[in-house]
Design brief:
Elements (H helix, E strand, L loop, with lengths): L2 H13 L9 H20 L26 H11 L5 H16 L3 H5 L6 E2 L4 E5 L5 E5 L2 H13 L1 H5 L19 H15 L7 H14 L4 H8 L4 H4 L1 H17 L6
Antiparallel strand pairs: 1-2, 2-3
Length: 257
């Protein structure tokens, strides 16, 4: 077995043949990783003189840009979540307003306690990955939605439970779970008639994309999202390039022939 053989195997996976369809970069990469592991083991155990797969690198997967929805679609989603004034509807509107208004991960949102809110200062403390905390501003829309929930919704939900500091409660008065938060979002998306797949991360992506579209500095967005590296945040700048092209094409007098 030679390096050429292993490289040819990878090429065959990507190109396919009469019996096998071509594999994606991620699927082919997993197969090559297994082959590399086998040859590395054989060489380490003295079964082969060298490792022919050592220099054959798995293909890099295609970088998928984050999915974001438009501001108008976000507004439809939020309106659908708070269509009535029941305790659960007030909670649902507040939850989605917080997700979009702060860019919080779903785990960060459902993990919030009432005391994490600075109701006077318009801030919220989020517990991010690796135990890192950050303070994030809460916009006026989210503040009003949360205040309405705290005054007219949460007390009624809390009355059915055993007492918990959690901000977002379920119908039994306990902490709202990630799965239930997903259900809240899916239900609101269906009511709003959104055809695109909408997840909690969609709101996080939309938060970042809309901030950058509005002129926010990428390093500020990095802090708000809780990214350890600005490189992670810069993927959102690729999303806004399409918006820049669109504006240029419609606004510049010499953009089109």
């Amino acid at each position: 077995m030679t390096e050429t053989d292993v490289a040819g195997f990878l090429a065959g996976l990507r190109e396919g043949d009469d019996q096998h369809r071509p594999l994606s970069a991620s699927s082919a990469g997993r197969a090559v990783v297994a082959v590399r592991g086998l040859h590395r083991f054989a060489h380490r155990e003295g079964l082969t003189k060298d490792d022919p797969a050592r220099e054959v690198k798995p293909p890099l997967p295609v970088k998928r840009l984050p999915k974001a929805i438009s501001v108008e679609e976000v507004e439809r989603l939020l309106e659908a979540a708070g269509a009535d004034q029941t305790p659960l509807a007030l909670r649902d509107r507040a939850l989605l307003e917080v997700l979009y208004g702060t860019g919080a991960r779903i785990s960060e949102a459902v993990g919030l306690a009432v005391d994490d809110l600075d109701r006077g200062g318009g801030l919220v403390r989020l517990d991010g990955k690796g135990g890192k905390q950050r303070m994030v501003p809460v916009g006026s829309y989210a503040q009003r939605a949360v205040e309405a929930y705290l005054v007219r919704g949460r007390p009624l939900l809390a009355a059915t439970g055993r007492g918990t500091p959690a901000l977002f409660l379920n119908a039994r008065g306990g902490r709202l779970s990630r799965q239930s938060a997903w259900t809240v979002l899916r239900s609101a998306a269906d009511k709003a008639g959104l055809t695109a797949h909408v997840s909690p991360h969609t709101l996080r992506h939309s938060f970042a994309t809309h901030l950058l579209d509005g002129g926010a500095d990428v390093r500020v967005v990095q802090e708000l999202l809780g990214h350890a590296s600005v490189t992670t945040t810069q993927v959102y700048t690729l999303v806004t390039v399409d918006r820049l092209r669109e504006v240029y094409a419609t606004a510049h007098p010499r953009a089109r022939a």
